[in-house]
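Workshop exercise sheet. Pairs work together: one partner reads the sequence aloud, the other fills in the structure field after running the prediction. Swap roles for the next sheet.
Pair: D.N. / O.F.
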Amino acid sequence: MTREATPAQNVLALFQSLRLTPPRLILSPPSQPRRASVALILRMKPAPELVFEGHEPEGYTGPVIPADEFGVGLSYDDFLRLDWVNHPNTTPELLFIRRAPSAAPTNGGHHKWSSHVAFPGGRQEPADESALYTALRETWEEIGVDLAESDYVQVGRLDEREITTSLGKRLLMILSPFVFLQTSPISPTPELQASEVSTVHWIPLASLTPPFEQEQWTHIEIDISTRLSPRNQLIRWALRGLVGKMQFGCIMLPDQPDHVAEGFDLNMDFEEPPEGGSGSWVDASGKRMLRLWGLSLGMTLDLVAHSPGGTDSSLIVPRARSGSRSTNGGSPDRSTTIFGPKTPVTVQSSFDQHWFPTEKSDLGSSPKSTAGGNVATVVQEPKTKRKHSIQIVDTRRRGVGPGVTAVFPRFSYPDVNFWIWVFGRRYRQVVKGWEDSVRGPDKAADRRTNWSGAALSTFYTAVRHALVVSIIVRALAALGGVAGLTWWLFKHFSKTASEL
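Structure field:
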């Protein structure tokens, strides 16, 4: 009997793809040893009609799920085969936090991450024994959730990312994302550190998986002039007029927190930082929304790219099909044969002078994908409390979806975007090589390439060149305009003087 896969089976396929993909670990260059870690925590929210032992409503006399079937302490694959987990109304959700709004201005402006939507995590301390330990410690400190307990299991990790300044000129730190699964139907109540976190949100994974509805995917404007010249108002005004604003893609999500920090007022008026980019927003109808963008959006898209169909979906639903998107994300195409996580691959930072392949043929040389065929899911009716296997049909690797370039900004001035395209040939080659490395044959050279760092470096190199050209063109146009006006005034007054 063949039927549509449940959300739990899609999550299992996502985890299998994640564990089959060797994560890229970036070596810190000598010039910047700073690192940070974050935790991406998923849970399976039970169907509303399910009742669990010890959590029965008052007066309830119906069937309950006993405690020994909760799944606490199970491996992720055993947990995702439990009956209650595979209920069609059980919902996979991903945890986000909203950073606390800044209490006071910093250096003449509000804190850069004020009200930003993010994952729990933070900087690595000298006493931390590993990047994983940093993720565990920071999660405990910020939201009071102990990921080392039996209620949680680490599933894998995503590729590390480089965090840079606004134009990618300087490396700030390297970020290590870890993925965890809550193996319990009952989520512990977080204890939020009010100075760091204002709210916790569990967002359905389906809301974070492309394609997005037209009204859900939008952009957020960042005033780059406030970062290039934070103190000089005149220079900021000039830069704003010359280069405009950066526009980052973002997902609009309902602002419906599951937990609120003590003392935080949900009805407060959120003040946008001077450069823009707050995670809190009020739309035209007055409805409060969350804006997921930047690194948090990038890591989210990295994760869902491992889901079935994650590499083939378009980023936005075409207008003709808006409102008709599928919610199941396709059928899993991975076997439930349990594989251990692949050995991480160490790559060099894009800020190391030897980071990139020297031979031109090394880039984008992977042949076009020959993987094809339809993916089918075969689910047998269970004879036990756990679901049977999902049969593998296609071995195509996942991990790079339509959001590869979604986190890179555009500019509000069309001519700046044009010059970015002119200077972006190398960047487009990197992105093509990155995509081909996923869809084509698995090559050791591709696994050793820091694709995200290469894309970041080549893109912002094109941006810097484009901004220089745009500023020069605008300056020449302004000088030409002033010269033309001066010549016209001179001719006008000369003619007037001759008539007198």
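Discussion prompt: Residues 152 and 182 are 4 Å apart (CA to CA). What would you look at next?
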